């Protein structure tokens, strides 16, 4: 059973991911600052469990993820990676029972990364799994894989070209060079670059605007449309949007959206159906 985000269990060890509510926005903070929030299986399990809880919590409408201390996520913990060649394959059998590492891609609510420092390797991949990425000018991005004798992991070879184009994706993947925030913005890797002191507050304010003024059902369907259209053609995307538009006219949120506009008041959209 996963822990409640409202009443975390008290233990001697710090939580690997902190959960903090800001109204209808849930802030998740990767919390291994002494390791630049390097990714390990325990952190992964905690992060994905919190996403699972947020998925079915009607009070949570948007999730923001960031890192504690100086980093967002410095990638897979190198101490774990150093053991790869000596691990008995039989001990990895539980891989099949864990959530897929791309679990954030299936999250139906908006997921926004506030990238406050290095996002490397698997840490960059997790940022790519978010719907939007806000960063500081000093944030550092690197795929890292080629410099570790590895390949483009966990769908990054599919995601990166769709964000930055084929040649830029190949540049980032083959060279594994470090890209800072302003260059990341210019190539489309991130959506906004903000001063470090206002990164989190601005990201939370953006998330709060989504939570307060946008239909959760609409946002979930828009996410589904965009990700499905990436593997579709234009006629198919138009056909899907026509069907969804007809369905949306019958949804209570459509009437609420019109009435709230005409009455000049904030909308009162229903929470996303957990099903």
Automatic annotation (TrEMBL):
Transmembrane segments: none
A molecular-function term among this protein's GO annotations: isomerase activity
A biological process term (GO) from this entry: fatty acid beta-oxidation
UniProt xrefs under InterPro entries: ClpP/crotonase-like_dom_sf, Enoyl-CoA_hydra/iso, Enoyl-CoA_hydra_C
CDD domains: crotonase-like
UniProtKB keywords: Isomerase, Lyase
Pfam family, one: ECH_1
Family: Belongs to the enoyl-CoA hydratase/isomerase family.
PANTHER family: 1,2-EPOXYPHENYLACETYL-COA ISOMERASE, ENOYL-COA HYDRATASE-RELATED
Protein's UniProt name: Enoyl-CoA hydratase/isomerase
